[in-house]
């Protein structure tokens, strides 16, 4: 990394102006600006807030815009993410228990403590602190497996939950093979417990959709949803209803991606009726299920179906709901990436950039560590009307 990559952009302008032996006045004249304007840019008092101006400055300095923005810096997070995925894959592939290998010199965690640690990891994930989750997961998986062997009854739930969060994170990091291994373990460990199976099936739906197996996802999610569906509507367990509704949403999103618009709409409507009973502000089984979550899913389905105008119209209303701010940061930021796609589809890169900046504010790792987020960032940053802040972020991350 060149030392100039660490400088603020105004200092970089001054550095390259000096390299080209241009006075502030000559530089200003060539740009068609005042000397005062140049001085303020170099001191950081005035920002370069338009892509066109950045391009003009780079042209006068005879450098690439990416160099001006620090593009030569090593892409952030790529190596770390790959290494983290490998550590998680290794943790899932040791088979210590099945092969009766000597356990590491680490005490078996009591089931109660393990449950607390798994809950903490879920919370960390929902705050989109993915690097921290990557660091903690390998040891937690090993601990959960050992605890389950020593205390099968009380160790079962935290084991399933450990596998669930592993699958959820692996989908985020673009590692569907690791996610598949984790969710398969979760489903196996949950077998025989209706609620646990339904909870694990939420991540199964995510993995199947991420792998492009949308028809299988729709079929499996429907089977899981109706297995957990309350038999009598008057006696509703909100936790079970949240699982059932979330599974219907998963099935709807799979249907939307498969081009089955009618089924997608019907399933989201059915989920919306359940959400009305649960209400916003709850997080049963880490689903965040409620009316707002279902509305966001309806918007995402519209994006999948190519109905971007409806998606944008609904989006502007959805983010004004009280339930919006009650959703986990991970949920909101992931949704905003989909909203940015909608704005791109209606040829509105300015608002696409605006919602991506908001996503980065809410949960930076959703853009910086999630491949899907980086892909949308690259698309937005290529547009001449993209906000300079996003262009700089794309350059720093090495995308575009």
From TrEMBL:
CDD domains registered for this protein in UniProt: HTH_XRE (cd00093)
Alphabetized GO MF terms: DNA binding
Domain HTH cro/C1-type: 13-68
UniProt cross-references to Pfam families, sorted A to Z: HTH_31
Protein name (Swiss-Prot/TrEMBL): Transcriptional regulator, contains XRE-family HTH domain
């Amino acid at each position: 990394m060149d030392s100039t990559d660490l400088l603020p952009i105004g200092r970089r302008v001054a550095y390259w102006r000096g390299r080209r032996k241009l006075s502030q006045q000559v530089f200003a004249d060539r740009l068609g600006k005042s000397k005062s304007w140049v001085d303020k840019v170099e001191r950081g008092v005035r920002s370069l807030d338009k892509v066109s101006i950045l391009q003009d400055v780079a042209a006068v300095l005879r450098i690439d815009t990416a160099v001006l923005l620090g593009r030569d810096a090593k892409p952030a997070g790529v190596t770390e993410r790959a290494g983290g995925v490998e550590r998680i894959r290794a943790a899932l592939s040791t088979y210590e228990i099945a092969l009766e290998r000597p356990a590491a010199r680490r005490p078996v965690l009591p089931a109660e403590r393990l449950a607390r640690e798994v809950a903490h990891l879920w919370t960390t994930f929902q705050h989109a602190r993915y690097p921290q989750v990557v660091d903690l997961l390998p040891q937690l998986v090993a601990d959960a497996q050992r605890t389950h062997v020593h205390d099968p009854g009380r160790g079962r739930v935290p084991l399933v939950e450990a596998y669930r969060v592993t699958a959820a994170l692996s989908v985020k990091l673009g590692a569907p093979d690791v996610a598949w291994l984790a969710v398969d373990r979760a489903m196996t460990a949950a077998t025989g417990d209706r609620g646990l199976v339904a909870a694990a099936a939420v991540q199964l739906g995510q993995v199947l959709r991420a792998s492009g197996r949308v028809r299988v996802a729709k079929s499996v999610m429907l089977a899981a949803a109706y297995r957990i569906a309350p038999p009598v509507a008057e006696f509703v367990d909100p936790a079970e209803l949240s699982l059932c509704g979330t599974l219907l949403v998963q099935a709807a999103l799979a249907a939307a991606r498969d081009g089955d618009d009618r089924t997608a709409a019907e399933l989201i409507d059915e989920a919306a009726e359940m959400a009305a009973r649960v209400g916003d502000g709850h997080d049963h089984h880490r689903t965040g299920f409620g009316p707002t979550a279902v509305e966001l899913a309806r918007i995402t389905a519209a994006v999948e179906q190519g109905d971007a105008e409806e998606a944008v119209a609904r989006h502007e209303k959805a983010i004004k709901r009280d339930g919006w701010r009650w959703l986990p940061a991970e949920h909101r930021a992931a949704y905003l990436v989909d909203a940015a796609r909608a704005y791109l589809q209606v040829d509105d890169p300015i608002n696409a950039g605006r919602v991506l900046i908001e996503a980065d504010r809410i949960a930076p790792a959703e853009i910086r560590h999630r491949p899907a987020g980086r892909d949308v960032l690259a698309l937005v940053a290529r547009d001449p009307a993209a906000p300079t802040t996003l262009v700089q972020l794309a350059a720093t991350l090495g995308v575009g």
